[in-house]
Amino acid sequence: MEKSALQQARMAYIPKLPEALKGLVKVIEGAPTTSVDNQEEIKQLFPNTYGMPVVEFAPSETENSEVTNVGVILSGGQAPGGHNVITGLFDTIKKMNPENKLYGFILGPGGLVDHKYIEITKDFIDEYRNTGGFDMIGSGRTKLEKVEEFEKGLEIVRELNIKALVIIGGDDSNTNACVLAEYYAAKKYGVQVIGCPKTIDGDLKNSQIETSFGFDTATKTYSELIGNIERDCNSARKYWHFIKLMGRSASHIALECALQCQPNICLVSEEIKAKNMTLNQIVEQICEVIAYRASQGNNFGVILIPEGLIEFIPSIGKLIEELNDLLASHGDDYKGLAQAEQRKYILEHLSEENKQTFSTLPDNVARQLSLDRDPHGNVQVSLIETEKLLSDMCEAKLAEWKKAGKYTGKFAALHHFFGYEGRCAAPSNFDADYCYALGTSAAHLIANGKTGYMAIVKNTTRPTSEWKAGGVPITMMMNIERRNGEMKPVIRKALVELDGNPFKELEKNRGKWAKETCYVYPGPIQYWGPTEVCDRPTKTLALEQE
Length: 546
Hints:
Layout: H1 5-11, E1 25-32, H2 39-45, E2 53-59, E3 69-74, H3 82-96, E4 102-105, H4 109-113, E5 117-120, H5 122-126, H6 147-159, E6 162-169, H7 171-186, E7 192-197, H8 215-236, E8 240-245, H9 252-261, E9 265-266, H10 269-274, H11 279-295, E10 301-306, H12 309-312, H13 314-334, H14 339-349, H15 352-360, H16 363-370, H17 386-403, E11 413-418, H18 420-423, H19 429-447, E12 453-458, E13 468-473, E14 478-483, E15 486-491, H20 501-515, H21 531-534, H22 539-544
Parallel strand pairs: 3-4, 3-6, 6-7, 7-12, 8-10, 8-11, 9-10
Antiparallel strand pairs: 1-2, 2-13, 4-5, 12-13, 14-15
Helix pairs in contact: 3-19, 8-9, 9-20, 11-17, 13-15
């Protein structure tokens, strides 16, 4: 595989480890844990993996060195640093015992079920150190939910003498890891399951997980692009740039990029939901900023829009909820119908309030909400051109205001969606170190006989040597939620907290950013140079850990 000069230089980078992970390790156990909600229901569903303690690693003089083969799975969307989780896992199990083997299952959980795998060797893995992407073994979105899948996976686990599986994924993937760990524990199969927290969206975090890996690199990548657009915007001074950013279920990415780049407007879905705002109210607020800046001779600006915004507008959120239930129970009834008939069918089955909302939506948005779904049954909000919808509505509103003499400026819009651009970027030093430490922690959880745990690394705003590593029971993060018309145990998503420091920082400054041109141009991710430039955490993490 041919390498760029940067990639060759990055391969030589040796990730920094916390002191506790540099040698032999022992486990220090805390108090028993409970789930974040629905304690009795979660306890009944996970009797073998509920109530376990949070564990922290400390230096030791001895450690388990028996032969332990391990399987690893990359699950869900890509995030920078995934390869370093695998290299940390590989290096550590080989250090424990050179006879240990690591097997990678191809294209996600489906590889386990379909028995598609490769043995990961030193020569093979060395090609992927400190690289972005999941192309080492590929990823997939197959869900491990059914007994036959668990048993089919067990066949190859037994054949390869695998003692533990490490599932690297987001909240859905780690929920599946928890279910699998419980099943294998209940059956006394002796197969451990460990999770690792991955998602660029930043919504897999809680009291034990400070950040999910990939968020640091992705937001720095997007911020470079936004800064470039801001500079162009401030140079041409004739366009409003509507920039949609990845983040279906939470606005963490948009908020972090706003803190880095200081755009004129950053919409936060959670705030819009809390204030019960309508689509028209959002458009009015944007137009007020556009009109004010025009009055100052500034017919340009930058607006950040979270990908999942449409679902957080309360009236549309209620509609989506009813559509989810309707499609979960009656989806097959209309799949064969013509497009016009599908719309008619939905309107006939919706409540009066949601019928009114649905009938006012543009045809392409209505179709997106009612028909095109992802493999989990979710609305594919990334395909809804929210940025175009908002700019079209702003254009119409400004035309009205112009007729009424309320607006005298010029309005021209350009549209961008940053998503895939950040998912496979070469990991920042933070993500390279963080992920390597997560993989190392996963190996030590396995060596210490743990199952149903997620590897964690804390104290991450301090120098790497001071980071604390360990594991948290996945059941501790779980609650019961409605998914596709059914109540299911899932890991609770972390949304932007409106009383949290990152949002308060935005709130404190956004009035000034709206009226003035306060753009910051972060530039590209730096890998070599002063530590305050190369190893800095995200502004979100720094503000949360204040």
